[in-house]
Structures are given as C-alpha cells and as structure tokens.
Amino acid sequence: MPVVRPYRIAVTSIKGGVGKTTTSAMLGLTFSRHRADRSVVVDANPHAGTLADRLLGERVIPTVRDLVNAELRKRAYNGRGLPEAPHIHQYLGQVGQLMVAASEQSADVGEAFGELHYSTAQEVLRRVFDIIITDSGTGMKHSAMRGTLAATDRLIVVAAPRFDAVRRAAKTLDEVHARGYAHLVRDAVVVITMDTANPVGINLAALTDYFRQLCPSVVQVPYDEHLYTGGTIDYDRVSAATRGAYLDLAAILADGFGYLMPGV
After folding, report:
1. What is the CATH number of the domain that holds 38?
2. Which of 75, 104, 196, 231 is 20 to 30 A from 224, alpha carbon to alpha carbon?
3. What gap in Å lies between CA 213 and CA 68, rounded to an integer?
4. How many domains does the chain have?
5. 75-98 burial by CB neighbour count: b if 16+ within 10 A, else e?
6. pLDDT tens column, 189-224
7. Is 158 part of any domain?
8. Is 264 part of any domain?
9. pLDDT tens digit string along 58-108?
10. Rounded distance between C-alpha atoms, residue 165 and residue 161, angstroms
C-alpha cells in the first residue's frame, strides 16, 4: 500500500529488556530496505535510550532535543520553522536509507524532554518523512508518552516469552486503553521476541492465542544471536528467519497505509 500521509508507529512496553529498541531498529531497517518511502526512527526514551547505539554505534550525533531547539529558533526567526529536508537531516543520524533521531544521553536533560518537545519533533519530521517509528520509553506516566500516543496511527507492543513479560505486555494494552486510545488497542500488533533459542515453561502456541484475544495481530520473532548481543546491528548479519519475521511485521503495518485519511 502507498503511504497517503506520514504514518506514525509507536513501539512500546511498560517492561524493559523485552526487545523494544531492537524491534524499532529492525522495523526501520526493514522498511528502508524494502520500500522507497522516507523512513525515520525516533528515540523518545527519556532515560538515555540506546536506539542510536544499536543503529549507529557510539558515533556522536545531534539529538532529538537539538532538532526541537533548532525548530523553535527558526520559528522565532521566520514563523515557519525548519523549511527543507537538508535543514532537518543535519540533526539526524543515518544508516543506509534510514534516518535516526537519537535521544538525550544526560538523564537530567532527558527527563525534561516531554510532551511538547515530542509533539514538536513529530511536527518537524512529518514534513519530510513518510514513515515515523517511535521507540518509546517504558513508563506510561511520563509526558513524552502522552505525546507519543496522541501522535500514533499504529501501536506495537513488545513481549518476551517469560511470564512477567507477558503480564507486562497485557498491562501495556490495558494502560493504553485506559488512557483513551481504545482504537490503538483494537489495531495493535504484539511482537513476541525470542530472547533464547529454547524457552522453558512457555507454550508459544498458547501465548500467541492469548494475545490474539487482545488484539488482531501477533508476530513471533525467532531468537537471533547477532541481535541478542546488544551491539550495533548489521542487517545483513541477522538471520534470514529473523529478517523474515520483521518483514512480516512491516507487511502487516503497510496494509494499513491505504486506510489513513489524507492530512489527518
């Protein structure tokens, strides 16, 4: 499906360590490899997120706060903000065709990055990108999450095959619903990321059936040693099975592109 307007995807879970950032990164890489759309991934974690590290290594790049500050300065000067793609791209990192908006690495500064800042970043990125993927923080109460949910077309909730992670994923869906975003839960995708090759004590078929009672789509991502190490992701070193699972996820999301109202 073609993208009729910027499509906004939020990847979240109220539990850390389940593969949320890996999913955000791999989804962005998958879209950039298989579609001609302009894609960007945004690290909205207020606690020194690692998205940029996973995609770019330890390279020092501007952060999403730098992008927002530049936008606000430009608005004060010309009333319109950053006008063209080159002005916006200078505040982003790049891997292949995928652009990356890094989070603050200072915890004190990161905490101050809230709903208004995130909404401003979204407004800027919508000018030049077709697909915007947000790697959100783990909490539901910080103000950046309010901005994330308000600017989301499709929600991805990430779980791991562990009882605590399963409960937290279900709780995430409950929290999103309770905050007034029942439509996001109705169309949500649950991604089960295998953090071990041989999970013990979990019936994966029953787990998938459980989540399908809560939302329509479930994707199981097989264990991948390259991703599990936590280092910089080299897409070509990811196993074919894992790349295929993320391609399935991208296809599920792309099916919704054509149902968006232009300009909404």
Report:
1. 3.40.50.300
2. 104
3. 40
4. 1
5. eeeeeebbeeeebbeebbbebeeb
6. 999 999 887 777 788 888 899 999 999 999 999 999
7. yes
8. no
9. 777 899 999 999 999 999 988 889 988 999 999 999 999 999 999 876 655
10. 7
